[in-house]
Amino acid sequence: MKKYLSLVSALCFASVLHAQQSTSTDALRYTQRDLNGTARFKAMSGAFGALGGDLSSLQVNPAGSALFNYNTAAFSLYLTNKKNKSSYLGTNSSDNYSGLDFGQMGAAFVFNNSNTESAWKKFVIGVNYENTTNFNNDIYSRGVSNNSMTNYFLDFANHGNNGQPVPLDYVQLKPNESVRDLYQYLGGLPNGFDYQQAFLGYNAFLLEPTTNNDYVSNVPAGQFLQNNFISSSGFNGKLSANFSTQIGERFYVGTNLNLHFTDYTQLNSLYEERLNYNNEAIREIAFQNELYTYGNGFSFNIGALAKVTENLRLGLSYESPTWYKLNDELTQVLRTNHFVGAGERDPFIIENVNPNTINIYKSHKIQTPSIYTGSIAYIFGQSGLISFDYTRKDYSKTKFKPEDAFAYQNSELKNLLSSTNEFRVGAEYRIKQVSIRGGYRFEESPYKDSKIIGDLNSFSGGIGYDFGGSRLDLAYVHSARPYDVTFLSSGMSDAARVKTTDNNISLTYSLNF
Hints:
Layout: H1 7-10, H2 24-28, H3 39-43, E1 72-88, E2 91-112, E3 120-134, E4 137-145, H4 150-159, H5 179-187, H6 192-203, E5 207-209, E6 215-217, E7 224-247, E8 251-274, E9 282-307, E10 312-319, E11 323-339, E12 348-353, E13 359-360, E14 364-367, E15 371-380, E16 384-394, E17 399-401, H7 407-416, E18 419-431, E19 434-443, E20 456-466, E21 470-486, E22 495-512
Antiparallel strand pairs: 1-2, 1-22, 2-3, 3-7, 4-7, 5-6, 7-8, 8-9, 9-10, 9-11, 10-15, 11-12, 11-13, 11-14, 14-17, 15-16, 16-18, 18-19, 19-20, 20-21, 21-22
Helix pairs in contact: 4-6, 5-6
């Protein structure tokens, strides 16, 4: 029998461990990064592991700050335009996002050793903040499917009770019991999210119980026009405290201690209309989910850089996993328009199943994979340089924690994800005070099946002017990546193929002091 929630539960607390069946997509949100940083760093596609001398180079190789000769500060702004082209079951659509964002701010302080006989020539203390990922984006997809979203609710209703149908007693309202009361109660149970989905579908008249104690769909087979809109906002940010030193004339080592911050909101609105409708039960369905995730994490870097000759430099660095602690909040609303009989004054009724509840889930953790980077650069005196970075990351090492509670999800991550290679190449040519820059970045898909998320290709360019004690840099980055967007986490096999093209302009002012 059902029992009403305690006062704590009535204040919208749910004790389940994960929201919306945490997936590989959720995990990758915290493991993949945009090419962000100073304009000089971005113009050369981030190929700075063997170069140093730039505040954003610290995210690749923390030894790079030891190449500063003066105290340095920098501040960066980004202008972003994202264009999304979507193809869903043969129908093409598009949407875009534009916005101005703060991107980077930091400073490095150089302390020279006055003892010229010492092997320790100087040490540098730096601090730098960067938005490593910009989540602001709008994606719209539409098309005609033979697969109704009703199957999403049907799947939970028939399998949400540890693989068995959810008991009818858990989805039917009792006398004087509100939608909010029962929805909140279900959220406090083991498998609470699954029960809640079954409850929504049943009370919106999408599901019908059978004598076999399972459920069938109230929606006959047919064709369904579906519109899916995803609006996301927020960021991943990283604050780094850097320590580095120069040993002798040619060797540099350094380390970072990093604090990570995340704030992510996703509004997913899915609308479905039955085509060739002929007074057959459900005509329209609208399902809205808003997920809010916030939290913080920690990681560290170590790195070394060597001047093999006056012109040739080599770099090697390691970044530990990031250990995130995250919190999820979820709200849901389901609305249906269904036929109730030609004899009625209004033959259609809109059922609005709105629990008016924020599901607040227990904190959980994500461990991202470690990152290894090898770098080489060649300096052509005062006229220019060319640099190359190679990065290796094993995405299959990504883990949800506690591991016993996320055994299924972690098994999925291990089976779906793989190791990736990333290549970055950059070049700079100087003409007196003017620097002209360009770069290219390639990153493999983190999935074994690259159809889920494709490879990333990115081109960049920029220009800078040195005023003597300060510098102004401008960069343009163009990147593109295709990926699949599944409308709901269960019961719908069709996915939209989306290609996101990101055009980013960055402006950085840096100052020596």
